[in-house]
């Protein structure tokens, strides 16, 4: 009889992990308090861009992100096949643009250490950058071009993961309101607000910013906090912008549905997910310096989501030494979409008592305790 495992949390990490666990032959149940993909997952711009986002240090987190990026071409095909649905996966490449000569040196330094990991990168002049993206401002003096970076349309990707879980036999429960972990030593027992009881052999905690709720119960220090990310979108003719565009202020990414996503402003607002004028203004106050036509445009859509940030910026991934039936997989901050592939496979390895293909030593859940 197959082992039964409960995944607490139905965001992109929870759903991806549940799907991979099912592929390893486990009986899997996903329990979600709200809607599937309703917080960080639903708010994400869907970028798979570790080279642009991690420019300072080739640490274990960079290696984790790099591993996941390189899994994605095959991973996204598997999810599409299992779900019998499609979602946008665009190998667009990216341009990390700069405005000052001094910034070109930092791009050269970045290219130097990333080269050791087989990263393809090209430092471009103003003219070369404008040739790739003619709409860019004349203020942009150059860029580093990463052909390998890509993006997905996050809402459709999350829906496809949900369908892949459903079609492969994962039991899915959402809108449960509240969940209580009542037993985790001799077995796993979780009770929902309406009194239903869910039992299993193992438990994966993938509840994002809400993982901190287990701190007292498990006698752990779990410094995961919600960071509100606000994003807006513009109508855009297809193919007008072809690459992910980065600057020190944020990003712009064009989607196949004719929208240009602009993000993200961040602030600490507890679990508040409302959109604020101040938050959106942080985007509109710089984006036209990158794409001048935005000066005359108004966003047609604005939204916000909660990103689970940890004290040191790294996720918690690993089996608890103090509670061997529990695996943590939370705190992915703004990299949940990117890290969904590698996290799912690493957690599945742990669940079936295999050594993960990538080191998780830097991400052990007890490191703050």
UniProtKB/TrEMBL annotation:
Keyword Oxidoreductase: yes
Gene3D superfamilies the UniProt entry points to: D-Amino Acid Oxidase, subunit A, domain 2 (3.30.9.10), FAD/NAD(P)-binding domain (3.50.50.60)
Reaction it catalyzes: glycine + O2 + H2O = glyoxylate + H2O2 + NH4(+)
GO MF annotation, one: glycine oxidase activity
Domain of life: Bacteria
Record's keyword terms, sorted: Oxidoreductase, Thiamine biosynthesis
Functional pathway: Cofactor biosynthesis; thiamine diphosphate biosynthesis
EC code(s) of this entry: 1.4.3.19
Pfam families assigned to the protein according to its UniProt record, in alphabetical order: DAO
Domain FAD dependent oxidoreductase: 5-350
Keyword Oxidoreductase belongs to the record: yes
Broad EC category: oxidoreductase
InterPro entries named in the record: FAD-dep_OxRdtase (IPR006076), FAD/NAD-bd_sf (IPR036188), Gly_oxidase_ThiO (IPR012727)
Protein name per the record: glycine oxidase
Species this chain originates from: Alkalicoccobacillus gibsonii
């Amino acid at each position: 009889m197959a082992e039964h495992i409960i995944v607490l949390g139905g965001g992109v990490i929870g759903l991806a992990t549940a799907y991979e666990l099912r592929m390893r032959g486990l009986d899997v149940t996903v329990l979600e308090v709200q809607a599937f993909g309703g917080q960080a997952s639903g708010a994400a711009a869907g970028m798979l861009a570790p080279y642009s986002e991690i420019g300072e240090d080739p640490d274990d987190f960079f290696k984790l992100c790099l591993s996941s990026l390189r899994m994605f071409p095959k991973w996204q095909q598997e999810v599409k096949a299992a779900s019998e649905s499609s979602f946008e996966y665009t190998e667009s490449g990216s341009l990390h643009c700069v405005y000052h000569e001094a910034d070109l040196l930092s791009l050269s330094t970045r290219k130097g250490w990333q080269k050791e990991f087989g990263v393809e990168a090209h430092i471009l002049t103003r003219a070369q950058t404008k040739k790739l993206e003619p709409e860019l401002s004349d203020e942009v003096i150059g860029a580093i071009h990463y052909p390998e970076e890509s993006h997905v349309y996050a809402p459709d990707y999350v829906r496809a993961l949900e369908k892949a879980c459903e079609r492969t036999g994962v039991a899915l429960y959402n809108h449960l309101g509240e969940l209580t972990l009542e037993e985790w030593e001799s077995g796993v027992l979780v009770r929902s607000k309406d009194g239903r009881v869910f039992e299993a052999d193992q438990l994966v905690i993938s509840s994002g910013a809400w993982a901190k709720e287990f701190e007292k119960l498990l006698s752990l220090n779990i410094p995961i906090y919600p960071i509100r990310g606000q994003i807006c979108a513009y109508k855009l003719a297809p193919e007008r912008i072809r690459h992910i565009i980065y600057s020190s202020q944020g990003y712009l990414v064009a989607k196949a549905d004719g929208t240009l996503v602009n993000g993200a402003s961040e602030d600490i607002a507890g679990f508040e997910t409302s959109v604020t004028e101040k938050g959106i203004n942080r985007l509109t106050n710089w984006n036209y310096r990158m794409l001048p036509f935005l000066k005359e445009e108004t966003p047609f859509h604005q939204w916000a989501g909660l990103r689970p940030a940890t004290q040191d910026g790294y996720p918690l991934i690993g089996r608890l030494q103090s509670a061997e039936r529990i695996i943590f997989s939370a705190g992915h901050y703004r990299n949940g979409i990117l890290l969904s592939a590698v996290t799912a496979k690493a957690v599945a390895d742990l669940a079936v008592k295999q050594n993960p293909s990538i080191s998780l030593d830097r991400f052990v859940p007890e490191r703050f305790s």
